[in-house]
Amino acid sequence: MILYKYLIPDRIDVLQKGRIRFTQADALNDPFEINPCILEFMEGAKEYASTKYKGPPLTHEQIEIYARQEAGRFLKRLFPDYLILSLSRRNNSRLMWSHYAACHHGMVLGFDSSSPFFAHWSRGKKTPLFDVEYSNTRFVLPKAETWTNDNVMGLFLRKSDDWAYEEEVRLFARSHAANEVLNLPSGELLYLFDFPGESLKEVIFGVLGDDEHRNTVMRIAREKYPHLRFFQAMLNEVNFDLEIEEFGPRVENPK
Questions:
Q1: Domain for residue 76, yes or no?
Q2: 45 assigned to some structural domain
Q3: Can you give the pTM of this predicted structure?
Q4: What is the pLDDT of residues 166-223, one digit of tens each?
Q5: Pairing of strands 189-194, 19-24
Q6: Phi and psi, residue 42, nearest 5°
Q7: Fewest beta carbons within 10 Å, which of 58, 69, 109, 186?
Q8: What pLDDT does residue 253 have?
């Protein structure tokens, strides 16, 4: 199965370097990302503060403060350490082309989901793919003492059903496993990971993309990705749909 990554034109460096960004949750465009309902977790923290806290007995107000601080510390640790690569099952979403591909000026990369990079665990470094689940309620973070891998994974995968059109699939990685970390002038860190060149199968150019960008991408492909197939997004003549049509022969290695 091919999974898709929408990119703005400037992200041509993904092809040049063979590296793709895994993003911190707090750098995404949805403030609900990895931001669950913490009421049950706080109840567990309150029980701990009431019965097992080593120190003078706490007042009700102090217990409440302790529980909120514990929840805040937990969530704060998650944001910089657990990184997300978001892909989609769709290559013709008009909204995604608009939001993530510079209003149809960018491109979409198609990756083979059966590649070991996407399909295998790398313990302590990277997960395989997981489907995002969509709901109208936030994930409920359970009490810490009841945590298992199964009952906390939804923390990373639950999104509002407003986003269901994206048909998102996610890959997670630890920040320490990045192949390159860029420190931007703004202070933001970019974590880049190498992907196998053979896992990249398709490039789709946006309806409003220009010839210069298209030619540059194809020139890079001749050097690094001779197996790539190229497609063009086009407006449907009747409906508000995008048609994705293949063009030209596959590029070949230069003689």
A1: no
A2: no
A3: 0.88
A4: 999 999 999 999 999 999 898 889 999 999 999 999 999 999 999 999 999 999 998 9
A5: antiparallel
A6: -65, -35
A7: 186
A8: 45
The residues facing 84 across adjacent strands are: 23, 172
Q: How many domains does the chain have?
A: 1
Residues forming a β-bridge with 240: none
- Torsion, Cα 166 167 171 172, to 10 degrees, reads 60
Residue 230 lies in a domain: yes
* CA distance linking residue 192 with residue 215, whole number of Å: 25
Q: What is the pLDDT of residue 248?
A: 67
**Structural domain range at position 197:** 2-27+83-139+149-246
Rounded CA-CA distance 146/6 in Å is 38
- Interval 77-129: pLDDT, tens: 777 788 999 999 999 999 999 999 999 999 999 999 999 999 999 888 999 99
Q: Is residue 171 part of a domain?
A: yes
Compute CA distances 22 → 74, 107, 159, 172, 176, whole Å: 21, 18, 18, 8, 12
Nearest to 30 by CA among 168, 215, 202: 168
